[in-house]
Amino acid sequence: MPNAFTQKRLEIMKVIASQAAIALENARLYAELKAENAERHRASEERFRQFADALPEVIWITDLAPERVVYCSPSFERIWGRSVADLYDEPRLWTDSIHPDDRERVNELFSRWVSGDADRYEDIEFRIMRPDGEIRWIREIGVASRTRQGVPYRVGGIAADVTERRATEALLRRNEAHLSEAQRIAKMCSFDWMLADDRVYWSNETRRILSYDAAIPPPLDALLDRVHPDEQSAVGELFEHALLYGREIDAEHRLLMPDGTMKYIHLVGRPTIDAAGRVVALRGTIRDITEQKLADQAEQRAQAELAHLNRLATMGELTASIAHEVNQPLAAIVATAAACTRWLGAAPPNLEGTHEALIRIARDGKRAAEVIKRLRAMFQKSDLTCEAFDVGELVRDVHGLVRGDLRSRRITLKVNVPGGLSNAWGSRVQIQQVVLNLVMNALESIEGGETADRTLTISAAPSRPGVMEISVVDSGGGLAEGSADRVFEAFYTTKKSGMGMGLSISRSIVEAHGGAIWAVDNDGSPGATFRFTLPISS
């Protein structure tokens, strides 16, 4: 039969059926794979959305042709203050929100990047304006998907709100500017030496103080190289002790600059020590105190000149007394020399008498020489050159200067200075001037007093460890009411003559020595007591 299933047809139909079964199975597998891929894609999109929704930054994806926002994370609403739905409806809302002053720059850079003229679109910072008028700073990074021909069809990116960071940076810049200006005004700089990598960070003012090129960060040796040669060893030892033992640095020293000028600086360093007790950093400041030092030196010179004038004035007041002190031994020398002439002219010569007379001449000559020596010391200009001196010897010299005045005024001087006080520290001439000023004031106070006791007492003794106290006690009329502090003011005086500078100069001298001076009325007796302190030489 023509339509009968022949063996050949059956074999063909088996092949067709087998292929159909394979096709159906492939169709089923493809459908399952498609569904699996769709599920995997949906799960991937869900994970992306969960991740993107949780980020504080805004993640956005936009198709370019036609322009359509594919995705924008919810943080957009918090940062931009606008709804994501509005952005989906109007994609230009994104660029329209950019601050007018930044919009052209951002749009130009975005267009150049998309067209391929710019290699990157990242670290772009611009401002946006929220509907409530608030301005925020945005930092944006973009990526592009391109065809094989390099044509972009989709772009995406991350936008972060950096408003707080920008505000913090602006605050830091202001603080740095204020610190830099404060350091410039104070003529101070700072340094930070990190020992791990042996790097030193300097503030801007350091280069001016150390006279280094502003473009070249100076090394740590920059400071030591500038230190005056006479002080390099001591300063190097300070740094060595700071690094080895963690000791702080606080010292003043000189810098010798390349142009030959001298600077004075105050150096302070604070080591940073880790948990293991090792010094890991040294931070500190350098302050240029040149003007202060020069001003101090000028003030010291002015005070020394004023003190010298005061000594001259005091010597003028003592002229008659001093003349008598010099004239007395000179007159004795003349008289004794005349006697020597007669004894030598006798027959036979009186050699024994002549010998004794020559001894008296030498003694009187020495007396006159001592008076002149004291005068020369008082007339000389003296800087504040400190040394150890004997208080007893100083008081004896003052006594020698006022001996004639004491005699003419019929005033008794008592000295309570034990032997061995040879360790007072200061300028001997200047301290002698202080004592002399106090003694002269005491003599005038006693002269103008109404008491029968005409006694002046000078005492000296250590008052506490490291401190010597010297006092001048008179039996005069005492201090005027309320004048205990005012007597040391310049031009203050209760006398008919004088300018009122003696006690003021005395206070300046004592305070320059690190001491103090004060006055009190005597307790239970007429007169006043003036006391001052000096350091004791170690």
Layout of secondary structure:
Layout: H1 7-54, E1 58-64, E2 67-72, H2 75-80, H3 84-89, H4 93-96, H5 100-115, E3 124-129, E4 135-146, E5 152-161, H6 163-186, E6 188-194, E7 199-202, H7 204-210, H8 221-226, H9 232-245, E8 249-256, E9 262-273, E10 279-288, H10 290-317, H11 319-345, H12 351-379, E11 387-389, H13 391-409, E12 412-416, E13 424-426, H14 428-448, E14 455-464, E15 467-474, H15 502-512, E16 517-521, E17 528-535
Parallel strand pairs: 12-14
Antiparallel strand pairs: 1-2, 1-5, 3-4, 4-5, 6-7, 6-10, 8-9, 9-10, 11-13, 14-15, 15-17, 16-17
Summarize the structure.
The chain is of the alpha+beta class and 538 residues long. Helices cover 49% and strands 23% of the residues.
**CATH fold name of the largest domain:** Heat Shock Protein 90
SS element count, helices: 15
Number of domains: 3
User: What portion of residues belong to β-strands?
Assistant: 15-25%
Q: Tell me the major beta sheet.
A: 5 strands, antiparallel
Helix % is 40-55%
Distance between the termini: 145 Å
Q: What is the multimeric organization of the chains shown?
A: single chain
